[in-house]
Sequence to fold (175 residues):
Amino acid sequence: MAQLLEKLKSRIPSLLRNFDATRISLHKYEKWNGGDSFVSREIYCNCGSNDFFLKCRRIKKITGLIFKKEITENKSPIYAICNECKSTNLVFDELRHGWNAANTNNQALSVTDSLESIFDKPVSLVVNYSYQSIENYEDLIESGCKNPEDYFDTFTIYAIEGGSKSICIASFECA
Ligand SMILES: [Zn+2]
Fold:
Protein backbone atom coordinates (compact mmCIF):
# COMPACT_ATOMS: atom_id res chain seq x y z
CA MET A 1 0.00 0.00 0.00
CA ALA A 2 2.66 2.51 1.04
CA GLN A 3 4.73 1.48 -1.98
CA LEU A 4 1.82 1.97 -4.35
CA LEU A 5 1.08 5.40 -2.87
CA GLU A 6 4.71 6.45 -3.28
CA LYS A 7 4.68 5.22 -6.89
CA LEU A 8 1.55 7.22 -7.67
CA LYS A 9 2.98 10.36 -6.07
CA SER A 10 6.30 10.06 -7.91
CA ARG A 11 4.68 9.92 -11.36
CA ILE A 12 3.68 13.17 -13.06
CA PRO A 13 0.00 13.31 -14.05
CA SER A 14 -0.48 13.95 -17.76
CA LEU A 15 -2.13 17.33 -17.25
CA LEU A 16 1.17 18.66 -15.82
CA ARG A 17 3.38 17.38 -18.63
CA ASN A 18 3.22 20.69 -20.51
CA PHE A 19 5.15 22.11 -17.58
CA ASP A 20 8.16 21.24 -15.50
CA ALA A 21 6.38 20.07 -12.33
CA THR A 22 8.89 19.67 -9.52
CA ARG A 23 7.83 17.80 -6.43
CA ILE A 24 8.30 19.80 -3.23
CA SER A 25 7.79 19.30 0.49
CA LEU A 26 4.14 19.62 1.49
CA HIS A 27 5.24 22.15 4.09
CA LYS A 28 7.46 24.35 1.95
CA TYR A 29 4.98 27.24 1.87
CA GLU A 30 2.28 26.56 4.39
CA LYS A 31 0.75 23.60 6.12
CA TRP A 32 -1.97 22.69 3.67
CA ASN A 33 -3.19 19.17 2.91
CA GLY A 34 -0.22 17.57 4.55
CA GLY A 35 -1.52 13.99 4.75
CA ASP A 36 0.32 11.04 3.26
CA SER A 37 -2.05 10.88 0.29
CA PHE A 38 -1.12 14.37 -0.92
CA VAL A 39 1.63 15.60 -3.19
CA SER A 40 2.68 19.17 -4.03
CA ARG A 41 4.51 20.34 -7.13
CA GLU A 42 5.91 23.70 -8.15
CA ILE A 43 5.01 24.55 -11.71
CA TYR A 44 7.63 25.91 -14.13
CA CYS A 45 7.25 26.79 -17.79
CA ASN A 46 9.47 24.83 -20.18
CA CYS A 47 11.44 28.08 -20.72
CA GLY A 48 12.41 27.95 -17.02
CA SER A 49 10.22 30.77 -15.77
CA ASN A 50 7.74 30.41 -12.93
CA ASP A 51 5.99 33.73 -13.46
CA PHE A 52 2.52 33.19 -14.81
CA PHE A 53 -0.58 35.21 -15.54
CA LEU A 54 -3.64 33.11 -14.72
CA LYS A 55 -6.94 33.06 -16.53
CA CYS A 56 -10.11 31.16 -15.78
CA ARG A 57 -13.86 31.28 -15.82
CA ARG A 58 -15.00 33.55 -12.96
CA ILE A 59 -18.41 33.73 -11.33
CA LYS A 60 -19.60 36.56 -9.11
CA LYS A 61 -21.77 35.65 -6.13
CA ILE A 62 -23.47 37.59 -3.36
CA THR A 63 -22.98 36.09 0.11
CA GLY A 64 -24.11 37.03 3.61
CA LEU A 65 -27.62 37.52 4.99
CA ILE A 66 -27.29 40.95 6.55
CA PHE A 67 -23.97 42.23 5.34
CA LYS A 68 -24.03 41.41 1.66
CA LYS A 69 -20.67 40.91 0.07
CA GLU A 70 -19.79 40.18 -3.52
CA ILE A 71 -17.23 37.41 -3.94
CA THR A 72 -15.69 36.05 -7.10
CA GLU A 73 -15.22 32.30 -7.49
CA ASN A 74 -12.59 30.87 -9.80
CA LYS A 75 -13.88 28.00 -11.91
CA SER A 76 -12.23 25.64 -14.34
CA PRO A 77 -10.76 25.71 -16.89
CA ILE A 78 -7.68 27.44 -15.46
CA TYR A 79 -4.90 28.50 -17.83
CA ALA A 80 -1.37 29.73 -17.13
CA ILE A 81 0.28 32.22 -19.49
CA CYS A 82 4.04 32.44 -19.07
CA ASN A 83 5.24 35.98 -18.45
CA GLU A 84 8.57 35.28 -20.23
CA CYS A 85 7.78 33.29 -23.39
CA LYS A 86 4.01 34.00 -23.45
CA SER A 87 3.09 30.34 -24.02
CA THR A 88 -0.37 29.42 -22.77
CA ASN A 89 -1.11 26.05 -21.19
CA LEU A 90 -4.12 24.52 -19.54
CA VAL A 91 -3.48 23.80 -15.85
CA PHE A 92 -6.77 22.15 -14.92
CA ASP A 93 -10.20 21.46 -16.38
CA GLU A 94 -12.61 19.52 -14.17
CA LEU A 95 -14.36 18.09 -17.25
CA ARG A 96 -11.14 16.42 -18.33
CA HIS A 97 -8.96 15.84 -15.28
CA GLY A 98 -9.12 13.74 -12.13
CA TRP A 99 -10.86 10.54 -11.02
CA ASN A 100 -14.37 11.19 -12.42
CA ALA A 101 -13.21 12.56 -15.77
CA ALA A 102 -10.58 9.84 -16.20
CA ASN A 103 -13.17 7.14 -15.47
CA THR A 104 -15.51 8.50 -18.12
CA ASN A 105 -12.60 9.09 -20.50
CA ASN A 106 -13.94 12.55 -21.24
CA GLN A 107 -12.02 14.42 -23.94
CA ALA A 108 -14.21 17.52 -23.98
CA LEU A 109 -12.92 20.84 -22.71
CA SER A 110 -14.92 23.43 -20.84
CA VAL A 111 -15.92 26.47 -22.86
CA THR A 112 -13.19 29.08 -22.97
CA ASP A 113 -14.99 32.06 -24.47
CA SER A 114 -15.15 34.18 -21.31
CA LEU A 115 -11.88 33.68 -19.49
CA GLU A 116 -10.82 36.45 -17.13
CA SER A 117 -7.52 37.26 -15.45
CA ILE A 118 -7.31 36.25 -11.79
CA PHE A 119 -4.49 38.66 -10.86
CA ASP A 120 -3.21 41.77 -12.61
CA LYS A 121 0.39 40.67 -12.08
CA PRO A 122 2.25 37.39 -12.56
CA VAL A 123 2.45 34.83 -9.74
CA SER A 124 4.24 31.54 -9.11
CA LEU A 125 2.15 28.37 -9.11
CA VAL A 126 1.96 25.35 -6.85
CA VAL A 127 -0.51 22.49 -7.22
CA ASN A 128 -1.51 20.05 -4.50
CA TYR A 129 -3.44 16.87 -5.31
CA SER A 130 -4.20 13.53 -3.70
CA TYR A 131 -4.67 9.78 -3.95
CA GLN A 132 -6.90 8.93 -0.99
CA SER A 133 -8.60 5.53 -0.51
CA ILE A 134 -5.55 3.70 -1.85
CA GLU A 135 -7.52 0.43 -2.26
CA ASN A 136 -9.34 2.05 -5.20
CA TYR A 137 -5.99 2.50 -6.94
CA GLU A 138 -5.08 -1.14 -6.40
CA ASP A 139 -8.34 -2.12 -8.12
CA LEU A 140 -7.66 0.35 -10.90
CA ILE A 141 -4.23 -1.14 -11.62
CA GLU A 142 -5.55 -4.70 -11.36
CA SER A 143 -8.14 -3.85 -13.99
CA GLY A 144 -5.33 -2.87 -16.36
CA CYS A 145 -5.14 0.92 -15.95
CA LYS A 146 -1.77 2.18 -17.20
CA ASN A 147 -2.05 5.77 -15.96
CA PRO A 148 -3.35 5.59 -12.38
CA GLU A 149 -1.49 8.86 -11.61
CA ASP A 150 -4.15 10.68 -13.68
CA TYR A 151 -6.90 9.49 -11.31
CA PHE A 152 -6.16 11.91 -8.44
CA ASP A 153 -9.21 12.65 -6.27
CA THR A 154 -8.62 16.29 -5.29
CA PHE A 155 -6.77 19.09 -7.08
CA THR A 156 -5.95 22.50 -5.60
CA ILE A 157 -4.09 25.36 -7.24
CA TYR A 158 -2.17 27.94 -5.21
CA ALA A 159 -0.57 31.19 -6.28
CA ILE A 160 2.61 32.13 -4.45
CA GLU A 161 3.11 35.83 -3.89
CA GLY A 162 6.25 37.50 -2.69
CA GLY A 163 8.09 34.17 -2.59
CA SER A 164 6.20 32.70 0.36
CA LYS A 165 2.58 33.74 0.80
CA SER A 166 0.18 31.21 -0.71
CA ILE A 167 -3.28 32.08 -1.99
CA CYS A 168 -5.74 29.31 -2.84
CA ILE A 169 -7.05 29.98 -6.33
CA ALA A 170 -9.41 27.04 -6.61
CA SER A 171 -9.91 23.58 -5.14
CA PHE A 172 -11.68 20.68 -6.83
CA GLU A 173 -13.15 17.42 -5.55
CA CYS A 174 -12.53 15.07 -8.46
CA ALA A 175 -14.12 11.89 -7.09
ZN1 LIG B 1 7.82 30.34 -20.64
Q: What stands out?
A: Residues 45, 47, 49, 82, 84-85, 87 surround zinc ion (CB under 6 Å). The first strand starts at residue 20 and ends at 24.
